[in-house]
Design brief:
heterodimer; A: alpha/beta; B: alpha+beta; 10-stranded mixed sheet; 3-stranded antiparallel sheet
């Protein structure tokens, strides 16, 4: 039954994508083709997503599918971008919006944003922060919890961006540091660091010089007097395995996006105008 | 008063000295040179004659003293023999007749009056006779040159030291060494681990395998040298190692002319502790090094049993250079066979702090500049 529904959705999506783009405007904020949610959960999430989208002028979307390759044989992120394009998602002239797509067969996800407002609100760093919010739920197959966190966190991030402080890092910190510190402060700090480093290097170097002045030291070993023939004979030796211990540690993976990573802060936008990333959950 | 030996040239009676380059005894007066064995056999006979003559002279002297006592001054409080109350002995130089006062451990030296190389046979004979000697291979000029080179490249050496200090004394000394053969049985018990890590999609799995490791090895040593002279600082003599033992030859007095030589004044038993310590450390680390391929090794216990073997007595060649600078004496020693130089040099505090400040400032400047460039 489930497989049949997935196939049907794939067929519908194919038609929508490649035959009749006009129908795309009707796609809801939450499209659960993989049937992860109950009707009530889907309705609740739909309402939440609509409210956030309207309040901040940036669409918040969820699409779940069985296998994205049924839609197009590329990668999950490209598939999500194409979905976004062909369903004509987004709000306003800039088509601002963010789409979370889940492909269940291989537990792939893609998080893509489009439009100036979305790029400003969901920076590279912010996009990963947002992913952390829902990935822990998805790993436990808590689909509703994950989508709920996604919409809620998206709302918070849009609010912060509206206030002029989008969730971002590095660049922001660096610029803050530069703007907050005066030139005199920076000189003092650099000189301080240089001085400490200089004293350490000078102490090591001068220590080496000083040791060169005193080379008369007592011998402690007799390596060079080990007999040339049969210098060392092993009379008995063994290495017996006794037991073993096993330690398991859960890996917390840093999510890597296919849209490029901006380690210096800000948002990386690809040639199709999308930012975001993809990964496994 | 005892007798001393002075090897004379059989051709012209000039004093003979050991030549480092040829390994023969050379006469600087007529240019003759003789193999060590030639002079040895020649002087074996002469030594016997000299001993007999000395005994006769002693008897004669005693008789003369007895006659003088009957009617002479009261000399009862004057010591008649240097050697009875002090660690010195008196000898007559066979070349010029001057009375030479030696430390009891001195076995060879030069007469300060006529410069003749002189040997005190009694100090290196019988049970005191060394088994081996490594003859000098480098001469006095090489030692002085090596000292000059030793000053090179020393950043903290006072600038004036190299030019102003003057060498007070350069002497070639045969230093007595005990050489210990032996072996060390070492048993080591340890717990070792090997760690394997595998990754799955969600987990890092670390498997630690534990092993009971046992090693029982015997490490044998040949001729660990320990300096047997109190006059020579142990750290200097240790630092002069290694000597090339392929040049070790059976001892003969004939190698001594032209150098100073001491007999041992620290017994083989007293020195054995140092050889034991060196052997133990090396044996333990050699056996321990066979425990390999593990991520960690933790020692549970070890046991060491030393098997002491043969002890040999050898004289090894050392050039001693004493210099004076700013009222202080500095001693340097050079391995007379390999040329390795050891000695502590004075540190110029001004130079030390100049380097310290210079490096500190340079690093500070570079770090500050980098901050503005980045």
């Amino acid at each position: 039954m489930k497989k049949l529904l997935l196939t049907l959705l794939a067929a519908v999506l194919m038609v929508v994508l490649f035959v009749s783009p006009a129908l795309a405007a009707d796609l809801a904020n939450v499209t659960d083709a993989a049937e992860l949610l109950t009707e009530q959960q889907a309705a609740t999430l739909e309402q939440m997503a609509e409210e956030v989208s309207e309040r901040y002028g940036c669409g918040v979307y969820i699409v779940t599918v069985g296998d994205y390759r049924d839609l197009e044989d590329t990668d999950v992120q490209t598939c999500a971008e194409d979905l976004y394009d062909y369903f004509d998602l987004g709000i306003g002239e800039e088509k601002n919006g963010i789409l979370l797509m889940l492909s269940m067969d291989d537990r792939d996800y893609a998080l893509v944003a489009y439009g100036q407002k979305a790029h400003y609100s969901f920076t590279d760093y912010g996009s990963r922060v947002l992913a952390e919010e829902f990935l822990d739920n998805f790993r436990r197959d808590d689909w509703y919890g994950g989508f709920y966190d996604y919409i809620q966190k998206s709302g918070e991030m849009l609010a912060l961006a509206e206030a002029g402080t989008p969730v971002d890092t590095y660049e922001e910190d660096y610029e803050d540091w530069h703007s907050e510190m005066t030139r005199a402060d920076r000189i003092k700090l650099s000189v301080g660091i240089g001085l400490v480093l200089g004293i350490i290097i000078a102490a090591i170097t001068c220590g080496v010089f000083k040791r060169q002045m005193k080379n008369a030291v007592k011998a402690v070993g007799a390596e060079r007097y080990i007999a040339k023939e049969n210098g060392m004979v092993m009379n008995e030796h063994y290495d017996r395995f006794t037991h073993q211990t096993v330690h398991r540690e859960r890996i917390v993976r840093e999510q890597r996006g296919s849209g490029g990573g901006g380690h210096g802060g800000g948002t990386t936008v690809n040639s199709h105008g999308f930012s975001g990333h993809s990964g496994k959950f | 008063m005892q007798s001393v030996t002075n090897y004379k040239c059989p051709a012209c009676t000039g004093p003979l000295r050991y030549d480092e380059k040829t390994g023969r005894l050379a006469c600087d007066y007529c240019g003759s040179s003789f193999a060590v064995s030639e002079i040895e056999s020649l002087y074996a006979e002469k030594d016997e004659q000299a001993a007999a003559a000395a005994a006769a002279a002693a008897e004669k002297e005693e008789a003369a003293q007895a006659a003088a006592t009957e009617e002479g001054w009261d000399s009862a409080e004057i010591s008649s023999d240097w050697g009875k109350d002090a660690d010195v002995r008196a000898y007559n130089c066979p070349s010029c007749g001057a009375e030479l006062i030696f430390d009891v451990t001195t076995a060879a030296t030069s007469c300060p009056y006529c410069g003749n190389p002189t040997i005190v046979p009694g100090n290196l004979s019988g049970t005191l006779k060394p088994d081996y000697v490594i003859p000098f291979r480098l001469n006095k000029e090489a030692a002085v040159k090596a000292l000059r080179e030793y000053y090179q490249g020393k950043k903290l050496l006072p600038k004036a030291f190299a030019s102003e200090n003057h060498i007070n004394e350069v002497k070639g000394v045969y230093v007595p060494f005990w050489m210990y053969d032996g072996s060390a049985d070492t048993r080591i018990h340890a717990t070792a681990t090997r760690v394997h890590t595998t990754m799955t999609r969600d987990e890092r799995i670390t498997v630690t395998e534990y092993y009971d490791v046992y090693r029982n090895g015997t490490v044998s040593f040949d001729r660990i040298p320990v300096d047997a002279s109190k006059k020579m600082p142990d750290e200097y003599m240790d630092a002069l190692e290694p000597y090339d033992y392929s040049a070790l030859t059976k001892f003969s007095n004939a190698y001594l002319p032209g150098y100073m030589a001491d007999k041992y004044d620290v017994s083989a038993d007293e020195c054995a502790a140092r050889a034991d310590d060196r052997a133990s450390r090396t044996a333990e680390s050699a056996v321990e090094s066979t425990i390999s391929g593990y991520a960690s090794v933790s020692m549970n216990g070890h046991d060491m049993r030393l098997r002491r073997g043969k002890v040999s007595y050898a004289l090894l060649p050392v050039w001693i250079l004493n210099t004076k600078w700013n009222g202080n004496n500095y001693m340097f020693a050079m391995n007379g066979q390999t040329g390795k130089m050891v000695g502590d040099l004075p540190v110029d505090k001004g130079r030390y702090w100049s380097w310290f400040a210079g490096i500190t400032l340079a690093v500070t400047a570079v770090v500050a500049a980098l901050q503005f460039l980045i």
